[in-house]
Amino acid sequence: MSAHRIKDTLNGKSIFSGGPKVVAIGGGTGLSVLLRGLKKYTSNITAIVTVSDDGGSSGMLREDMGILPPGDIRNCIVALANTEPIMEQLMQYRFTEGSLKGQSFGNLFIAAMNDICGSFDAAVREVANVLAVTGKVLPVTLENVILYAELEDGTVVKGESQIPIKQQAINKRIKRVFLRPSSCRPLPEAIRAIKEADAVILGPGSLYTSIIPNLLVKHIANAVNKSEAVKIYVSNIMTQQGETIGYSLSEHLSAINGHAEKLVIDYAVVNTGQIPESLINKYETEGAAPVVIDYHAIRALDIRTVEGNFVNIENGFLRHNFNELAECIFQLIQEEKLQKDKRRLLDYYYVAGKLKKYENS
C-alpha cells in the first residue's frame, strides 16, 4: 500500500479540529519523532510512555529524589508542545558546568512540579498545560519499575541502561525482558485511552527497552487486544546495537507477540526508501543494517505491510521523516475507517432485511 494518496484525501485543518483518537505507545527518541507528525492531523493524541529508564539525567533524579524517570516524558511533551521555540530550547537545555552538569532543565522542571503537585502524573499534566500540549502524555504506570533482560545463555541483566551494554559484551541475543514488580498496574487513564482509540501505534523505537516494557505492565497488552482500534507497528529503519542486531521485521514482531499475550497487530509500516551508502557504512561499524522486510514470514503472522520512503538524516543519524510517516499513518486510519463504515452499513442492511423477512412470514 502506498502513502502518496494521503494528500488527495486528508485535509490537515479539518482533521486537526478533532480528528481520530490515536494512542502512541513507546519511549525514547522514536516516540517523540512520531508525535511531531501526528499532532498535525489530530488533537486527540495520547502518548503512553515507558518509565523504566535508569540512565543519564533521568537515572540520577530517579535515584536521588525517588521520582519516576522524566526524560522520555519530557521529550514527548516537547514534541507535542505548541509554544515558542525558546521554551523548547529551555526544556531541552542541559547544564554544562558545576554540580548540575549533564542535568536537563526540563527534567528538573518536572521534578519540581512533582514536589509541588504531590504526584508524578499530576506534575506531567501541569507541565503539559504550561506548554500547551496537543493531546495527553501519560506514564504507563506510577510504580517504580525496574527492567530486566535474560540473554540466550541465561545471563540476567538488571536495569534498562545496562541491557544494551551487557548484550554487546556477552554477544548473546535477548531471550526476554521482564519488569519487577511484575504486578505493576497501569495508569487507569491509559487503559481508557486504549479502549476508546481509533488507532494504537507501537514504535518506532528500541524494541526491548522502549516498546515492549509498556506491554509488560499489567492489562496494557490485553487492553490493546480488546480495543477495536486498528493496531499499527512502525518498524525501525535500522537494527539497533545492543538489542536487535541481525533481526528481520518478522523477528521484531515475533518478539512483541512473545511478550504481549500474542498481541494482534494489523499493519507494519516499513521503510522502502533508499538509504545513502555513507550512512549504511557508518551503521555497519556498529553491526547495524537496514531491517530486512521478510514478506513471507510477515504474511504468515497475518500482518499487512504499508510501505513508504521515511528516510530522514538528522545530525548525521538516520531518523524517520515524521511528516511522511504521519501522512502514511493517517491515510491508513482513514482507509480503515471507510472499510469499517462500509461493513457496519452492510450489517445494518443485512439485519434490516432479515427483520423485514421475519415480519412478512
Description:
The structure is a single chain. The chain has 361 residues and is α/β, with parallel strands linked by helices. It folds into two domains: 6-142 and 188-360, Rossmann fold (3-Layer(aba) Sandwich), CATH 3.40.50; 146-180, no CATH class. Helix content is 47%, strand content 16%. It has helices spanning 6-9, 12-16, 28-38, 56-65, 71-80, 85-92, 105-117, 120-130, 163-170, 188-196, 207-216, 220-226, 249-259, 277-284, 295-300, 322-360; strands spanning 22-26, 45-49, 136-139, 146-151, 156-158, 174-180, 199-202, 230-234, 267-271, 304-308, 311-314, 317-320. The strands form three sheets. The protein has a seven-stranded parallel β-sheet, with helices on both faces. The protein has a three-stranded antiparallel β-sheet with strand order 5-4-6. A two-stranded antiparallel sheet has the order 11-12. β4 and β5 form a beta hairpin. It is globular and about 75 Å long. Mean pLDDT is 91; it is low at 1-16.
From the structure provided, what is the oligomeric state, counting identical versus distinct chains? single chain
Number of domains: 2
Overall pLDDT: 91
Anisotropy-based shape: globular
Low-confidence stretches: 1-16
CATH H-tier superfamily of the largest domain: CofD-like domains
SSE order: HHEHEHHHHHEEEHEHEHHEHEHHEEEH
Estimated share of beta-strand residues: 15-25%
